[in-house]
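Forwarding the complex inputs:
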Amino acid sequence: MTHAIGGSQPVTAATASPASQAFEAFFLENEPKLRRALVAAYGFEEGRDATAEAFAWAWENWERLRDVANAPGYLFRVAQSRRRRRRIPVLRDVPGWAEHRFEPGLPGALAGLSPRQRLAVVLVHGYGCTLREVSELTGIKQTTVQNHAERGLARLRARLGADDEC
Amino acid sequence: MNADLNEQIRELIDGGTRPVSLTEITARPPVTSPPVTSLRPAKTLVRHHPGRAAAASVAAAGIAAAITVALLADPAGQGQAGRGQVGREQAGQAGTVLTAAMVRQVEAASGTALAHSGHLRITYSNVSSLAPGSPGAGTDDITFSGRNWNYVSDQTAPPNGRSVNRFAGGRLYYYGPGFVRHPGDPLSWFRETNPAEIRAVTSVTAPDPRELLRVLDPAARFVRVGYQVIGGIRVEQLRATRLGHLPGLDALPAEAAPAGRVTSLDVWVDSHGVVRQLHLTSQLNVTTSDRKKYLVKENGTVKEKLGPPGPVRHGVERASAWVSFLDIGQPQPITAPAHAIPVYGRG
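Prediction (whole assembly, two chains):
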């Protein structure tokens, strides 16, 4: 097994330190979840950038972070506090794919939601996360997450004109 | 529609970004200030003075950006320069401190690159102000591959000839001045047969380059100096600013080991974070007092007595050692010499 801690030179499991291996496991487990949440909240570019920023912080402070009870949630707050300031989420700026397998209006409709609504809709409805998981990750109360998810989904469906199809 | 919409959301989010890689995050600017958060960690995080934290945050961002550029710069310039060392290309952002993670990253990358085989060339010199006409100098070439190694020592001042110790296939071989079967014969390879001697020689003779990499200690607080091209490879020069404790220097052979206090340590690192070269200087204050010895005969016995003390002379011995990591990742053929003469305890 190889991974890339330590630069572009591969580091084998045999030579990587236990701390590196623990961090790698933590990273592999939590990167998708954190990235999706941050992309939902801040857009493709900024969300991804915030994800990388948060894990860079985690790598730098791994000795301390590994003892934190809710490390993914902690990293979410790191990303929030470190992200670059932008006013408009950029979910509208969908990369130029050859084929879009979603409604053309979906990026714009999602971008029209509030950040918390978008976050809740993406995680709860898009990825099937439980309210508790979203709450632990984002630090938002479960009931609030539920409200954001329901209202956000309703707004999304309305924007997409999907009410009649349900 | 809901299930379909959920799937579309996943398509949009996952398709819109590519996953973050480990390489990417280790190269990013670190964030040193803890976030403002209501989450309660299991263990209390270290608190920073707010002002210091803010200043550190700003400074760290700049520093880390510089390091990122420095260590993971696109090596597009590789191969464009000729062989040998040329002047610095760039001195911008010099003086910024590498974070502990970056230093460890360099150590890890270098250790990986040298894990199986490599070639070290150590060029050393030393001179005392009390005896400027009697400098010491020489070159050691050490190649290793797995457990095998070949150590060529060529001391040029004072001239001491070229000798070779080789460890191959669990056996130790010698070659060099004095290793002849009969006086007047040409030099021959000898094979050590004393197990204790083999253990002793192999434990002290050949420096393990991976041990040497322990000088890459974050406590040394490495700072950026600038870029250079060495052997056609674009490298960045890093300089240790805290020289009180530099582990790993014990791995240097005795003739290249620092004399007294280390006065400088510079490291050149390529775009992969692999160490390409080290330069170490050291200084030792020496004091001499010539005092002649006399042999006197007292009561029928000869005794040695010291004459009157001469003038005390104070001087400085300065030493310098260059360590070049060559042929990184290249296999090093180290084979047992044919027709070696068995010898017991000649190391």
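The first helix of chain A runs from residue 18 to 42.
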